[in-house]
Every structure is written in C-alpha cells, then in structure tokens.
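Data availability (excerpt). All sequences and predicted token strings are deposited with the supplementary files. A representative entry, Methanethiol oxidase, is shown inline so that the format can be inspected without opening the archive.
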Amino acid sequence: MAKCRGCGPGYKSPLDAMKGPREEIVYVPCIYRNTNIEKPDYLATVDVDPKSANYCKVIHRLPMPNLKDELHHSGWNSCSSCFGDPSKTRNRLILPSLISSRIYVVDVGTDPRAPRLHKTVEPSELFWKCGLANPHTSHCLGSGQIMISTMGDPYGNGNGGFVLLDGETFEVIGNWELPGEAAPFGYDFWYQPRHNVMISTEWGAPKVLANGFNPNDVKAGHYGQSIHVWDWTTHKRLQSLDLGVAGAIPLEVRFLHNPDAAEGFVGCALNGTVFRFYKTQKGDWATEKVIGVPSKKVEGWILPEMPSLITDILISLDDRFLYFSNWLHGDIRQYDITDTRNPRLVGQVFLGGSILNDGLVKVTEDQELDGQPSPCIIKGKRVPGSPQMLQLSLDGKRLYSTTSLYSAWDKQFYPDLIKEGSVMTQIDVDTVKGGLRVNPDFLVDFGREPDGPALAHEVRYPGGDCTSDIWI
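Structure token line:
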C-alpha cells in the first residue's frame, strides 16, 4: 500500500497504484452450490508469491456458516475512494451471496492470511428494510458507506436497486435509489463523482436464471439489454439506454480509471459485444458498439450458432488495455484502447471452452479461426471449463483467470467443472506492444480441495485492484 502520512487506504491515483507492491496472496470465493457436495461455500486464501514454498496453494479456507449461499463477487469496506481519510482502513471484505441474499463481512485485517468472519447480514434485513434481494456488486463510497447492487426483489423478480450499509457497523441503512427509481433489472455498477454519474447494468430476473439458462426466457423479456444512468448526487435515474438485441445481457461495467474520464465500456454477454458509453457535448450519455465477437456455426451443441458469451471485462490502471473473457468460445482477449472508439486486438489465448478440437462440438463456419483450438494443459492438468473471471496485477503484467461463471450455468454448460472443480491460471502480459502468454508454471487446482472439487470465482487482492478501487 502507499506509504504517506495522514492518508487513508489505497492509492492517490491509478498511476500510483501501478507502482504498488506485487500481489502475494489473493482471496477467491469457492462455491459448492449445485455440486452435490453438502458443504458451505468458503473464502480461499491463495499464495501467489513465486518466492514462497506455498506458491499456487490454498493456504487458508474460511467456510461460511450456511449452505448454498452462492458467494459471487466481493468488495471492500473502504478503498482508494477513501484515500484522503486517515481514519479509514481497508480491513473488511464484503461478501454478498447471490442466491441466499446474505452478506458476509470478513475480517481480513487482523490476519490477512487467515481471514475470519466478522458479521453476517441476514436476508431479512435486505427484504424488510429495502425490499431487495440477490445482492451482487459491492463498492465502498467516499462517504465511508458501502453500496451493493441487487438483482431482484424477495420474490425472485428483477429489481435493479441498491442497498446501503454503514461502513463501521455494517447495519443496513436502506435504499440508495429514490422510491420508484429502481431499474427493471440489476447486476453491476460503477460511479464517477467528478461527472456526478453512476452507470448500472442488467443480468436478468433471479427466478429464471437461478437454475440454468433458457433462451426462451430472453424472448419473454426476463433478461435485460439496457444500461442505466444515475445522478450521483440526487440518486435519480436519468436515462435508460437500450442497447438492443446486440447488447443483450450487459454484465460488467468499467469506467476508465482516470477520474476525469467521462467514458467506459460494458461487456454484453449474449451476443458477444462490447459497447462504449460516453458523455455527449449536451451533457447526457450515449453508447456505441465498438467490439463484436462473431458467433460460430456449430454442430453437436444445443443451438446451431454458438455466441462467445463475454462474461468479464476489465481495464488496466493506465487505461491502455481492455481485457475480456469469452466463456463459451474459451479465449481471453487483450485490446489496445488508446483510441477508445476503435479498440485494437493485440493479444489472445485459449484456455478451454466449448469448441476444442477433441470435443463433441464441430465448428462448421468460423469467421475468425482456421481451426478449432487444442485443449490447454498446464502442469499436466487439462484446464476444465473455460476462462471466466479476470483480475490484473497492479503493474498490468499478470492476468489471473478462474473458470466458474455461476454454479447453475457451470452445471449446464460445463458439467466437467462440477466433477473436476475449477482452476486458476495466470497469463503473462506484454505491456509494451500487447500480447498474452499462458504461464506454464502457474496452476491452482480447486479440484483437489479437502471437501471435494469446488467452483472458484472472483479474484481479489488484499491491497486493492483494478476492479474494486474507484478514484474520486
């Protein structure tokens, strides 16, 4: 972390963060829901220090006190948005549960290598105080409060509202959005106070996606295709920007890290697109599609065409590179976004997926590849499933990937993940010219966990990272 007198957690700027120390441990939520293993989800602490005797090993496991929570994404009690407040410390990890609607607060300050449970916020608190359920993304605010987006109401319908927690007691304060202002669906969000704006995205109604994906639910309007613009000061929803069929299921949203920037990107899963959103000269917000990954015509799959399914995106701290994962096709891509309107593909690696050359799916028409990719084998282990969640080192030189998307969809699309568990891999990044290369010496195999194969999801660094820290 930054060393200076009178400063709070994190770093003064994104470029300062790039000079931070190399990551030595990471936190990874591991899920047992839908695996037929009756054990609670847990938070794994993984050693990623190449100088350590425990390199690539899980060194601690913190089981949750309940079953079938579906841990998913995590956030902090305070981050770089509180850098100017010396009273704040990044010592609690906020762990929302996507299905049970519990929120766990984990003490990572007392012993970072052995986190312990600090508090549990029960679902009834969200239900009764906010009318919300299915919490997803957690961000700390410069005010010291914690804000968590939600996907549903207590009945499983879509509801894009936001829960506020007290940053000291972790009590539920209430809704962030004004009465009647919630979006039809919710998922991710990112705020940019210098432009008095927040952008939120949409997945779908929890009651239809809880147990798997049915394309008919998209046609029935149970999945979203809009992003929403909010006034950061008044909490009013100002615009809902319909991305159309091309932008169906907009998931992860990322502003550029520069707090003066008035633009960013959103990855849209269903049809493999990335949209740029930006502030216009009039002062409102607009979008344009800047990347499209062509679907592949296939035989031996559930549909005659297979979309790439972009499921995670992130931006390097210097705002130079955009990365995303194609969970069905099986690749990770790196784009140079120096010209944000014209991203340029500069790196690509395949780590699995549904179109491998020894699988059951035959690609009959491909606009990008000359042949189907080979399986990825690291340290003698064939990577099961496909790259999904991404996290980039502060200096931008190491990209981590895990292979679980969401347990019900894992079970549907990659049943081998349920049997074998997921893995965590590392990709070396060329930060000069661009380029990606799989590190052949790095593999964390969650198939060998003591209680059986687990599904590993998001990667989080104790000192903050490019998907959790926001500068104001």
